[in-house]
From TrEMBL:
This is Tetratricopeptide repeat protein. TPR repeats lie at residues 296-329. InterPro entries: O-mannosyl-transferase_TMTC, TPR-like_helical_dom_sf, TPR_rpt. Keywords: Membrane, Repeat, TPR repeat, Transmembrane, Transmembrane helix. Residues 1-37, 479-498 are annotated as: Disordered. Pfam families: TPR_19.
Amino acid sequence: METLENSGNATGSAHDETGADDGSGGPEAWNHPPRGRSRTVRRALIGAGAAVAGCAVLGGVLVLLPGEETPRAGALPGPAGRAAIAAAVGAPAALPDLTALIREREAGVREHPRDDGALAELGAAYVERGTRTARTADFPRAERALRDSLRARPNGNAAALDGLAALAVARGDWPGARAFGERARKLAPRRWSSYAYLVDAYQGLGNGKAAGKNLEKLTELASGTAVTLRTVAVYRDRGWREDAEAVLSDAVARAGTPAEQAALLARGGELAWERGDAAGALRHFDAALGADPDSAAALAGRGRALTSLGRSSEALRAYRRAIELRPAPAYVLELGELYESLGMADAARTEYDALRQRGAGEVDVVVLGRLEADHGDAGAAVSRLRAAWKRAPSVGVADALGWALHRAGDDREALGYLRRATDRQKAGTVRVAGFMYHRGVVERELDLAGPARRHLGEALRINPAFSPLDAPRARAALDSLGEPDEGGPAQMWAPKRR
């Protein structure tokens, strides 16, 4: 049951795509965090003034309008003002405050329809709300407002380009996010949020070097939750789990709002669950819910951890509440698979059908590919994922396409993609249990008993309960392979010279 949001769904296009310098180094240089970045220096990533900085989802998606100032000391802003201030420093605004800001800007653009700044801020606010709630009806509204802003001010409009980059990230359109982010960066090289979206974009495109380069620039310009979560994502992808956890621990201690604290604790729970510590993950998610009882990410994570611990009834309640708050496709798929693992086929089918009805425009391509490969039309999944691979050859798409090919009966081609998804030189050093399981299953089908035994065993060592459906299958497949044959070469080392 891997978390699968925004792994490669392209739903829009961008203009004047520019190629960024990929940065220096590569996976072979990713064995350690940047030199000299001790625990003390890592704290600088968070920053002494980060008590109100950061955003749980799309840090920096909103900006203050040109010429606007934060309220003077002692002033008490209203809901829309609070949302604007939070956005200016990258903090997550409360949803009621965000809605108040949207209403205020809507009224403003009705009166001044060519106010490019208000249009850009309105579009960015729609992106933020749509992402936070997983209700994608806000995305077309966002695109209209942002493109109206560009029409009102076609040159030098970094705010609108930033908003379009954020929208592309929200839709999983990684080439578009790269193109818009690079254009915004060129116009305003000191604008921190452009680098945040470029980190997202290059990670989605499977270009870890460029993601790391943009992260370095981002940490020079800003601090807070938005920066922390992207730092953790890059560190995690490079296999630096302890450093990722240290960054999170420092950030939690400095979090200035319950929403920030909940986002950071939930991310820590995800890292703990990925490495098989379900009890530790549950503690993180419970702490996150103590800070923000309506954190959908923490509720879904709690459902995942409870599933791993065999507490299925509680897990079902957690997932249902998470989906009520934020009907993210990945949560719906996980709930369906939990139902299926419990023998509740009708309930599982209801969740799967709900995802299909939402369609490709609303469901991340990897989630939809997994849905069809495992619970529907594997051939359709292959076609969809091949197109996604051409647009954005990321690790997540490689794994999903390889698995779909296996489910469609083409194990030889499948193995090439699955090797790419698990190769330390191409995919980084992070090890994902589900990816290892997929590779091991295909190797077993191809009578590669040794590699199959190794990768199935690794999947279960990483996380013994990585999926309510697939973890038991991994054990059964490993058991079917039995122990390695005894014996081997009569002489394993060259004879000594005389």
